[in-house]
Design brief:
The complex is a heterodimer.
Chain A lengths: L1 E12 L3 E9 L2 E2 L4 E5 L6 H8 L7 E6 L2 E2 L4 H7 E5 L10 H11 L4 H14 L15 H13 L5 E5 L7 H16 L3 E6 L2 H7 L2 E6 L2 E6 L1 H8 L4 H14 L1
Parallel strand pairs in A: 4-9, 4-10, 7-8, 8-9
Antiparallel strand pairs in A: 1-2, 1-3, 1-5, 5-6, 10-11
Helix pairs in contact in A: 3-4, 3-5, 8-9
Chain B lengths: L2 H16 L2 H35 L2 E6 L5 H9 L3 E4 L4 H6 L5 E5 L3 H6 L6 E4 L5 H28 L20 H32 L1 H6 L1 H6 L5 H33 L1 H6 L10 H28 L3 H19 L19 H11 L5 H25 L3 H4 L3
Parallel strand pairs in B: 1-2, 1-3
Antiparallel strand pairs in B: 3-4
Helix pairs in contact in B: 1-10, 2-7, 2-10, 7-10, 7-12, 7-13, 7-14, 10-12, 10-15, 12-13, 12-14, 12-15
The chains are: A alpha/beta, B mainly alpha.
Chain lengths: 247, 397
């Protein structure tokens, strides 16, 4: 469902010169799989996800999402994914219902299909009681539910979630974790980035540790433990990152 | 490009824009209220001032009035002066206790009666408007007095008064009413309408670009299946609508206000009639189309480049000055349309609108200016569209 081929993104920074934000990355995420991207802030997780969503263009290499090439089939790629990150905020002056409908229409859905899908989603997320309220009047938990609803209104087969629990309270974070689990049961392909180790431990079928734009290792949690001889994912992560810094 | 998606983006942006109080104020409230407040406010103020001036009694000191009893009685009869006594008239004028002082020379009337000339001196403060006005009123009475003396002297010499006025000057105004009425509008309307079209588009342009970046909604839109071209077009159409609506509402408000305030102007003795004929209105509308396109694109491009609302405002403020100065071309009396000027944006429209409002339709120029502005607007729209493709602009850090 998601496959990258030597995906690379360079940025030019006035002070630091050329930055390799994503450096020759090769990963593969399959349907029914939660693929975790673990990395420190600034490791390149968000850039990698932006490349996969076609918001940014790679400097070299490419990727395929549901078989569509990110370089040549960006519209098809965007129609196949649901993208959620802390940078994808909501329109404060629209209501919850209007927001979700808007993204349904942008995804080319018919009004009747939007209404039907909205009904399902609003019921699952318990959103009906605030669907007519403006976003700027809602709490962060409610907003996160709207964000999830707009991400999946077109029932995408691929979900790209960039630190979806960042800055959220325990209950809202738990709802998101539940949502990811449910999506996995629906056989969706989920690429999920975090720097919260226990979230990754709980959710991910496969983990890639990313540091300074490079994927240091990929494997199941058990494989990573076996590679390092350490049990705790925190320690596993630190060992890889430190090893890279020393080399 | 998918028209359905452009329509979806446009309708959503319009709804969002109309829920923004700042936009509503700049797009509807200010254009509707500005002209009535300005015109009615100014006429009421002028009327009030005129009334106050008429009612005002100015204290004046007279010196040597015994030398000119007849002339003094003329001043005394005028109720707009009150005759007061002050020892130091200079200090009294300086302290504004009196508005002026009049001093008659010795044997004033004796000398006049003898057929000689005599002196009368008015002391006043030219920097004090009330003192200056009082001196003018005093001067008017002196002129009436002088006129009567001249007539008397000519009579005694059996000379006809017309001998002193060999040339009789008569002026007749041949301007049609339309031109007269358009004169006032032709000065102000082009300038105001062009500025209003810009300010009406300003807030939506910032809100839809830098505002979205700041709030984090730009990325939400960019990851949706709408293409950059569709997003740019939807946003451009929204800003263009805001600009055109503001321009049209301003024009309507100004014309309606001007026509309803005729009676007020008549009260202060001005013979003004306001009207715009349908052809002028149509040309105004047609010329505003490419201008609003141009203004909207330039605003969108500048605001898209900015990272935040504040940064966008700092880019746009200088643009206001760049537009205000050439838009003032309609105020310059000597500046006429020429082929060269027809290619200078803003000035060309300002001058054409002025001509059109004066009832003169130079179709060649109107067509040329429409086309040249449309070409500039097309180029600006192209640049805006390209900017939406640029990662460096959309994700500028």
């Amino acid at each position: 469902m998601i496959k990258t081929f030597n995906l690379t993104k360079l940025f030019q920074d006035r002070k630091r010169g050329k930055i390799r934000a994503v450096d020759d990355v090769n990963i593969e995420c399959k349907p029914g799989e939660v693929f975790g991207l673990l990395g420190l802030n600034g490791a390149g997780k968000t850039t990698l996800m932006r490349l996969l969503s076609t918001v940014l263009m790679p400097t070299s290499g490419t990727a395929q999402v549901k078989g569509f090439d990110i370089l040549t089939q960006s519209q098809e790629v965007k129609s196949s994914i649901g993208f959620l990150s802390s940078d994808t905020a909501l329109y404060p002056r629209l209501t919850a219902g209007e927001t979700v409908s808007y993204f349904g229409r942008l995804n080319g859905m018919e009004e009747s299909a939007i209404d039907k899908r909205k009904e399902e989603i609003f019921k699952v997320f318990d959103m009906n009681w605030f669907k007519d309220q403006r976003v700027d009047k809602l709490s962060s938990g409610m907003k996160q539910k709207i964000s999830l609803a707009r991400t999946i209104i077109h029932n995408p087969e691929v979900l790209i979630l960039d630190e979806p629990t960042l800055g959220l309270d325990v209950i809202t974070s738990k709802n998101i974790i539940q949502f990811i689990r449910r999506s996995k049961e629906e056989n969706k392909c989920i690429l999920f980035s975090t720097h919260i180790m226990h979230e990754a431990e709980k959710l991910c079928d496969k983990i890639a540790i990313i540091h300074k734009g490079k994927v240091l290792t990929v494997g199941t949690l058990e494989e990573l433990r076996a590679k390092t001889g350490l049990k705790d994912l925190d320690d596993v992560f630190v060992k890889f990152v430190k090893g890279e810094n020393e080399s | 490009m998918n028209l359905k998606k452009i329509k979806t983006i446009y309708l959503k942006e319009m709804k969002d824009t109309l829920r923004d109080r700042r936009t509503l104020i700049s797009m509807l409230l200010i254009p509707i209220l500005l002209f009535p407040l300005l015109i009615f406010g100014m006429t009421s103020l002028t009327l009030k001032m005129a009334q106050k001036t008429a009612e005002r009694v100015s204290p004046v000191v007279f010196m040597g009035e015994g030398e000119a009893p007849n002339l003094f009685s003329m001043f005394k009869a005028d109720t707009s002066f009150s005759i007061v006594q002050e020892k130091d008239y200079r200090l009294a004028i300086k302290d504004k206790r009196i508005m002026a002082a009049v001093e008659f020379s010795r044997d004033f009337e004796k000398r006049i009666r003898a057929g000689n000339s005599a002196q009368v001196k008015i002391y006043y403060d030219v920097a004090e408007i009330k003192s200056k006005m009082t001196s003018e009123k005093l001067g008017n009475i002196l002129r009436v007095y002088q006129d009567s003396i001249v007539t008397e002297r000519l009579k005694s010499h059996k000379v006809d008064r017309s001998l002193l006025q060999p040339v009789q000057i008569q002026k007749e105004n041949l301007a049609p009413q339309e031109k007269m009425s358009g004169f006032f509008l032709s000065m102000f309307l082009p300038y105001l309408i062009m500025i209003m079209a810009l300010t009406g588009a300003m807030y939506p342009a910032i809100d839809l670009t830098a505002g979205e970046k700041e709030r984090g909604t730009m990325e939400t839109l960019l990851v949706s299946p709408a293409s950059r071209g569709e997003i740019a077009t939807g946003k451009f159409l929204t800003v263009f609508t805001a600009s055109l609506v503001t321009a049209l509402v301003s024009t309507a408000s100004m014309v309606i206000t001007a026509s309803t305030s005729i009676s007020k102007f008549r009260e202060i003795g001005e013979k003004v009639v306001f009207s715009i004929n349908p052809i002028s209105m149509l040309i105004l509308f047609l010329l505003m189309l490419p201008y609003c396109c141009l203004a909207s694109s330039v605003l969108l491009s500048l605001a898209l480049y900015a990272k935040s609302y504040k940064e966008a405002q700092s880019y746009i403020s200088p643009l206001l000055i760049v537009i205000i100065l050439p838009a003032m071309a309609s105020f310059l009396p000597g500046l006429e349309l020429s082929v060269g000027i027809a290619f200078i944006p803003v000035i060309n429209i300002s001058l054409t609108l002025k001509q059109v409002l004066l009832g003169s339709y130079e179709w060649g120029y109107i067509g040329l200016i429409f086309l040249s502005t449309a070409v500039y607007a097309g180029f600006a729209v192209f640049v805006t569209r390209r900017l939406f493709e640029k990662e460096g602009v959309l994700f500028r850090t």
